[in-house]
Amino acid sequence: AQSVAQPEDQVNVAEGNPLTVKCTYSVSGNPYLFWYVQYPNRGLQFLLKYITGDNLVKGSYGFEAEFNKSQTSFHLKKPSALVSDSALYFCAVRPPLSNTGKLIFGQGTTLQVKP
Amino acid sequence: EAGVTQFPSHSVIEKGQTVTLRCDPISGHDNLYWYRRVMGKEIKFLLHFVKESKQDESGMPNNRFLAERTGGTYSTLKVQPAELEDSGVYFCASSHRGANTGELFFGEGSRLTVL
Hints:
The complex is a heterodimer.
Chain A: E1 3-5, E2 10-14, E3 19-21, E4 24-26, E5 32-38, E6 44-50, E7 56-58, E8 64-68, E9 73-78, E10 87-94, E11 104-105, E12 109-114
Parallel strand pairs in A: 2-12
Antiparallel strand pairs in A: 1-4, 3-9, 5-6, 5-10, 7-8, 8-9, 10-11, 10-12
Chain B: E1 5-7, E2 10-13, E3 19-24, E4 31-37, E5 43-50, E6 53-56, E7 65-68, E8 75-79, E9 88-95, E10 105-106, E11 110-114
Parallel strand pairs in B: 2-11
Antiparallel strand pairs in B: 1-3, 3-8, 4-5, 4-9, 5-6, 7-8, 9-10, 9-11
């Protein structure tokens, strides 16, 4: 079955330190890959996507993600975390044969950035 | 431009009662999606409208769930009768007709608690 795994329920980092939120997927072929963020009392917000090309993609708020086909991973990264980055992060994939917004999401990772 | 709006933000009902959730997509967005997150797990696809037509309702749990989008504008999701396992956060998302990359605009969600 197609699935997305975010192995960490919560990631804690100190402000100014680099952060990584992990995501692996189990989807055949070449899916589109996404990260969404949910700030408190807000809806999910698109952060970045990978479709094809350079394995390192850059998105909003200084975030980037690295696609690794051999490891079927799409980890979210940021060189220097801010307290305002504290939120719930979701990894998602769009299967290759889909041409709609029907996405498969992971269970989410809470990022806590402490001052 | 107004975003995707959902109502109510939180609903608490007794088992066996009926609840209707409403979603107003971004004006002009033909695609409308319903998703659900149950008990801190992954966000799961429920169904997809293109204008007033159901494009894909493969994620609907059972026939207690009924979604409509009369006139191709706002959408409602009715749960009748509600069961305990229906508790969760129901998200609505929308996108332009031609935007099939998977970038969706989400509402803040409607939290449903069934007692």
